[in-house]
Design goal:
The protein has 8 helices and 14 strands. By secondary structure, it is of the alpha/beta class. A hairpin with a 3-residue loop joins strand 2 (56-57) and strand 3.
């Protein structure tokens, strides 16, 4: 639990820095508001897209100086803008079904599969346990390699399961794991692909994902199955944001130019 809390603290601290670097200036350009394309009858609050997020899930969304910031928040704001709506964020934790079925939110970010009361749009991000190296073209690990990973993490378990326990170099947190491959204690480090890319980006560490230890999971937007018009509108908005490059820009803000992992080889 202490190790997990330490990683969360590191992620939130880095998230605060990213929020400062990526946040909008009060004197900056404000785009003209688009015409509302969704009927108020489809919304919890007229003229507003009420969006559920998990604020304990950096870098996707986390508390920073009294606000919720992160990848999911930026994507939600872009969707609301496409629909000509204001944005209202609600922290729903990981309980997507209750947020949708209880009419607390219009949509919820970060859904990986459909639930009893909601369907899921096409994805705006993917993630999975990955192996990082200091060379983007590094050879894949073998059972003679040394792979650093946070102790008791999913990535550490994946390393032990695929390569054997002798390969694993346990670290207290992800930052230490990246330090281990910088100083030669290990040749590789393993972590969630998005979290690893985020920590590397915010700390200026030159490491790159070279393979996945599992099939990447795709994440989209949860929308009530009873609101078909809203489903269509959100899907259309997300498609436009993907094709127009906005989703790529948002992800780049938080994780740099590192690949999302979807094109990496999966090692089993």
């Amino acid at each position: 639990m202490k190790r997990t809390s330490k990683l969360v603290a590191i992620l939130v601290a880095a998230l605060c820095l990213s929020a400062v670097l990526c946040g909008c200036s009060s004197g900056g350009y404000t785009p003209e508001k688009k015409q509302q394309t969704v009927s108020d009858s489809m919304l919890v609050k007229s003229g507003t897209l009420t969006v559920g997020v998990n604020s304990n899930n950096a870098p996707y969304s986390a508390q920073s100086s009294g606000s919720i910031v992160g990848i999911d928040v930026d994507v939600a704001a872009a969707i609301a803008d496409e629909l000509g709506l204001k944005l209202d964020l609600v922290d729903v934790g990981s309980d997507i079904d209750s947020a949708i079925s209880g009419s607390t939110c219009d949509i919820v970010m970060g859904a990986s599969s459909a639930g009893s009361s909601y369907s899921v749009t096409s994805s705006y991000r993917t993630s999975g346990a990955a192996v990082f190296a200091t060379d983007a073209n590094a050879q894949l690990p073998t059972k003679k390699s040394k792979i650093a990973a946070q102790a008791s993490s999913l990535s550490a378990w994946k390393v032990s399961d695929i390569y054997g326990k002798k390969v694993l170099v346990e670290s207290n947190d992800l930052t230490e794991a990246f330090t281990d491959i910088q100083n030669g204690t290990a040749t590789y480090a393993a972590s969630d692909s998005t979290i690893g890319a985020y920590v590397a980006h915010t700390t200026g560490t030159s490491v790159y994902p070279i393979c996945l230890l599992e099939k990447a999971t795709s994440y989209g937007v949860a929308v009530s199955t009873t609101k078909t018009d809203l489903q269509t509108s959100v899907e259309t908005a997300l498609s436009q944001l993907n094709s127009g490059g906005m989703i790529k820009v948002i992800n780049s803000r938080w994780v740099g130019e590192t690949t999302d992992g979807s094109g990496l080889k999966v090692v089993k």
